Amino acid sequence: MKTSLAFPIRKTQHSHLAGTDFSNLVFGKTISDHMFVADYRNGEWSDLRIEPYAPMQLNPSNAALHYGQSIFEGMKAYKNEEGEILVFRADANWSRMNESAERMCMPYLPKEIFMEGMTQLLDLDRDWVPSAKGSSLYIRPFMFAMDDYIGVKPSDTYRFIIFTCPVGNYYSKPVSVKVETKFTRATEGGTGAAKTAGNYAASLYPALQAQKAGYDQLLWTDGKTHSKIEESGTMNVMFKINGTLLTAPVNGGTILKGITRDSVIQLAKDWNQPLEERFVTVSELKEALENGSLEEAFGTGTAATIAHIRLINIDGKDYELPGKTSDAFSYRVLDALDGIKYGSIADPHEWIIKI
Ligand code: COI
């Protein structure tokens, strides 16, 4: 493999690859043998290395633990028929990570460190990339504050790590969601567009309440009026109403700029699928459920790719979505994305890098 950045690689003496059951993967539980690490001090990234995945020492006064200066990304690698490793749109994740970094007062991470760290890690742990259809290697790059200081200010030091996990399907079946009109994921001027730890922490309590009431996830509404649909759980959300694909715009700062969302929009454009990037209101959604014009609803995200929604609860009332045939947009787009990711169809937008 051609590399442009040289750094030390310390290999594990205790690989747990042979003891891993690839037919029984729970999302995020199994971590591969190695991780890439870089440290930021004195205004620059240094000490790049790959080492065995292992616990690390942090002081109890570590700033990230107290004030949440922590951001992450998620992308996936796939194995094609020839055994090559294909990574989907990692450069888009790198760009988004730097947008999150800026919002959270964290340092810019050069593309070369992100891409070379990932490439060399995947090359070393290539046997961890599952080959079964529906399985992939989830890649988790993240950055967090490293100052030992509990005054409230941006940290001066940071650590960037990439580790990977072999994963199966995120959701095994279509999900039920509840429109949330009390709690808020994000509001204008907040951190909703950043992939930062606190957004996920704040979502746990409302999601748990929905799960206790029997739903898999929430449909988040805007923080001001709770009248516009923003996201679904940890994903962007799309609806097909009267033949038009609808999804919330991502320029208002409250919604994550999903890379799967962007890929679905691109394919919809390629296929001349009518599409509008605009908010769907709760009352519009209710009406569409009542008059049968809601054809499809689905979440889009790296972990699930497409999460089909089977039921939506609005104001305490459950609405079942109509059954879909295999030519439904959400199935076709999932097939096309899988085809590109596993290398079985052409990649017209050059989304794949091969390792
Ligand atoms: C994604 O699907 O892209 C996510 O961010 C989910 C992750 C938090 C597990």
Hetero ligands: 2-OXO-4-methylpentanoic acid
| Low-pLDDT regions | none
Described by strand count, sense and barrel closure, the largest sheet is: 8 strands, antiparallel
The SSE string, one letter per element, is EEHEEEHHEEEHEEEEHEHEEEHE
Mean pLDDT metric: 96
Corresponding CATH superfamily of the largest domain: D-amino Acid Aminotransferase, subunit A, domain 2
For the record, the CATH architecture of the largest domain stands as Alpha-Beta Barrel
Helix count?
A: 7
Category from helices, strands and their pairing: alpha+beta
- At the first level of CATH, the class of the largest domain is Alpha Beta
Strand content: 25-35%
Q: CATH topology of the largest domain, anyone?
A: D-amino Acid Aminotransferase, Chain A, domain 2
Question: Could you describe the 3D structure shown?
Answer:
- The protein is α+β, with helices and mostly antiparallel strands and 355 residues long.
- It has 2 domains: 34-169, Aminotransferase class 4, branched-chain amino acid transferase, N-terminal domain (D-amino Acid Aminotransferase, Chain A, domain 1, 2-Layer Sandwich); 175-341, D-amino Acid Aminotransferase, subunit A, domain 2 (D-amino Acid Aminotransferase, Chain A, domain 2, Alpha-Beta Barrel), CATH 3.20.10.
- The protein has 7 helices and 17 strands.
- Strands 1, 2, 3, 4, 5, 6, 7 and 17 form an 8-stranded antiparallel beta sheet that branches.
- It is globular, with a radius of gyration of 21 Å.
- 2-OXO-4-methylpentanoic acid (COI) binds next to loops.
